[in-house]
Amino acid sequence: MKSKIAQARLIFTVVTFSLSSLLYAADDWGDDAWGEEEKQGAIVHGFIETAVGSRVSDDALISDDLSLAEVRARVEAESYQGDLRLSGKVDLYADGVESGLDIYLREAVAEFSLADNVDVRAGHQVLTWGTGDLVFLNDLFAKDWVSFFAGRDDEYLKAPSSSIKLSAYGEKANIDFVWTPIFNSDNFISGERFSYFSPRVGTQVAAPNGKLVPEEPSESFSHGEFSARIYGRSQILSGRSTEWALYGYRGFWKQPNAINSNNQPYFSPLTSLGASLRTNIASGIGHTELAWYNSVDDGGSDPLIPNSQIRFLMGYEQELISKLNLGVQYYFEHILDYDALAANDGGSIYRPDEHRELWTLRLTYRAMQDNLTLNWFSFYSPTDQDYYHRPSVKYRFNDQVNLTLGGNIFGGEQPHTFFGQFEDASNIYARLRWSY
Amino acid sequence: MFKLISITSLFVVAVLSVFKNVYAADLTNADEIVSKANLVSYYAGNDGRSEARMLIKDAQGREQKRQFTILRRDREEGGEQDFLVVFSRPSDVRNTVFLVAKKPGGDDDRWLYLPGLDLVKRISAGDKRTSFVGSHYFYEDVSGRSIREDSHQLLETTDKHYVIENKPLDTNSAEFSRYIAWISKANFLPEKIEYRDENDTVYRRVEVLSSALIQGHETVTKSKVSDLRSGGSTTLEFRFQNYDLGMDQAVFSERSLRKPPREWLQRGQ
After folding, report:
1. Where would I find the H helices in B63-194?
2. In A, which residues are within 8 Å of B124 by CB distance?
3. Does B125 touch chain A (CB under 8 A)?
4. What is the CATH number of the domain that holds A182?
5. ipTM of the shown complex
6. How many domains would you assign to chain A?
7. B136:A119 CB<8 A
């Protein structure tokens, strides 16, 4: 393993130097731009990216100061066979922190129409719905928190899953139905790249001893994930076009937050129902979303299984002054049957609060003909008294080359809270990408 | 002799009537001229399709490019209409889709689909006068500024142009204090538009560089916007334009954001 990582670091160094020389490369498309692409067979694109990130302070549990050191070559191919669309996206990467040389399948889908108003999208794919900005209630598709915390491109926050998506479109409403036959959890913080707080042990832990290795649900039809959305647009608010949606999910919590009889973490069953609205308000966009997470711990008395929750979000964003956009969100999580939990967990000092509140702030400023983007995103919880700041600067040298500098800064009053536990994961990073 | 006179007089009558027609064609009502120009620029046919590419130059001469296909359908002549813009280049904006439901007199509905995240993002109606994908064009230039947002005054009628002054009714809604449009008397295309700031200095110019008659509609095939402050400019070329293809309203829905309608995006309908 160690030699694989050393190898990955060597590749990382070589490619970083050669990529830097491309900064001011010519940006010709190199062919007849009016040529109709589809008639040229498969369309191939992609990028080569090198990224490096470092902790801003030591993590006593993880000797490596690097939180990110990788080179990634993405190949994307798209092709049409009549009305059938095939699309594939693959990353070959050399990861100098965790896994050495590896292949990551981002997308492998076939898209076609079953009828005039029914589409199918089958295969390995990224799926997103809901109204939140980096806050997810009814979107229970897999997230990659390790990539998000490490400073990879935003797109990696959404992890792909092998699913079949069926979409039917009507006059008044549309329906999406997604079946993921094999449960696909979040890529959660497992103690490898970043350490985390274990309430069981009562302290911060990391790999190898503290590596979080949950029990996966066995593979069966009933252990698949089923997600549905009914949605549409209507003029319910004084002539404004309002987007409404109802959501349902049957599957498992996406993080291993239950403990089995062998004292091993696992993903306990979860069903959820929810709704959202999004519309123009004043000169901005307002959204609100509600979700009821119904856990299997009926009555909430089992402290080893998460209780049911109500989650609520409201947010608003608008342009403050030219090129400067502001977005604010308020979110809460309310644990149901909290008294039963409190009466049965032996008075745990790490028990989450009954009511967790979270505010988010996004400021985006674009300058230099949109080639420079300054972005600031903050999570702040007044109830947990912790925070997570995500500043970033992106500069687009030309159509091919861009550079992103950013940080992931965590902190809090207590070592066990949602963001507070990641204080030692705080990092700054740089990414240089050449697209083709 | 009599014959000659009558021929001459016929000729004179004919010439006079031509002149009379020319004079009769001179409009004097600014709102009427602007309304015609709006129809010619943004409402040709009931629907339309065009491929487009932009060459963006900054003051240092560095170039960037964008390529996309635009679909449009009118719900009402001169009124509400829908646009779908599907990007094909460069590769970092490939398959990004932009959807607008334009509502003159109200707030437009606008969405952006980001394929990497499978995210349908709604964009507020407020920031229409910001750069369209890094070019010197604004979002509002693509779908058209509602003529109800400005007051219009005919400054001058020249041989070839109606010269119209436009002032925003809500001065906070735009970065200009006024703009002057040179609208062709022959075909009502606004051939040149100059935007002036609060000091009445021209800082932005949009020009039609070429146009062609397509299915009976005078259609811009090349235009340019110059940012006179920064020295940057964007040239926009259109090709493969067609009108009245018979697009359905359903083409302009969330379905098309995730699955762009190939039936209409491909050439040669």
Report:
1. 139-143
2. 280, 283-285, 317-319
3. yes
4. 2.40.160.10
5. 0.92
6. 1
7. no
